[in-house]
Amino acid sequence: AAKPKLYYFHGRGRMESIRWLLAAAGVEFEEEFLETREQYEKLQKDGCLLFGQVPLVEVDGMMLTQTRAILSYLAAKFNFYGKDLKERVRIDMYVDGTLDLMAMIMLAPFQRPEEKQETLASVIQKAKARYFPVFEKILKDHGEDFLVGNKFSWADIQMLEAILMVEELNASVLSDFPLLKAFKTRISNIPTIKKFLQPGSQRKPPPDAHYVDLVSNILQF
Ligand SMILES: CCCCC[C@H]1O[C@@H](O)C[C@@H]1SC[C@H](NC(=O)CC[C@H](N)C(=O)O)C(=O)NCC(=O)O
User: Fold this and answer.
1) CB 146 within 8 A of CB 152
2) How does DSSP classify residue 131?
3) Residue 218: which of 65, 36, 83, 74 has the closest Cα?
4) What is the pLDDT of residues 158-209, one digit of tens each?
5) How wide is the angle at C-alpha 205 spanned by C-alphas 25 and 159, nearest 5°?
6) CB 13 less than 6 A from any atom of ligand 1
């Protein structure tokens, strides 16, 4: 079968979680990087962007947009979505929590300096006071290696991605969360994840001024 093809900027943004999920599944994927407004307008003209937005993922003969829809499709396709409805809804709850936290991190680079500082301070505060305590308790109460069932799932992938992104903002953020620290080590050592974390993988770096300029120019906001 053809490899999935990802259409997005050369940066993390909303596409990064999709890269993580594919990498965790050991699925190779291609990328077309949007460098110009023309590329973006061509995708729109060709009717590929349902609401005129990216991420766009070409997979199984479909042109998919809406990040969460794509993630859900891929999680189900690669059996990262639990063994039944009850496990799936738990995965959805955990994933949506991490996506809420990550959305704040994603927005920050596009804000003015003072707002950006406030947002990033709020990310650390929410991670330490709201999100990480919840996941620490889940790991404690559940007593398994993974967040849901006793199987590696989309929730674990999203959680590791979120932990690493918050640690980029504050390296000691896990100091009060020993179970999350152990979780981070455990999940990082899963072979497909370990490979994705090594240099040379398709994992993207944190956003820089060039990325912000590129996206702002292409999307003209
Ligand atoms: C102010 C928000 C900053 C984010 C800007 C973009 O850069 C990335 O870091 C995140 C987004 S992605 C680009 C943006 N896509 C979305 O907002 C998709 C939202 C959708 N619900 C999804 O989850 O896929 C885009 O195409 N906009 C064009 C425009 O709406 O006309």
Assistant:
1) yes
2) I
3) 36
4) 999 999 999 999 999 999 999 999 999 999 999 999 999 999 999 999 999 9
5) 45
6) yes
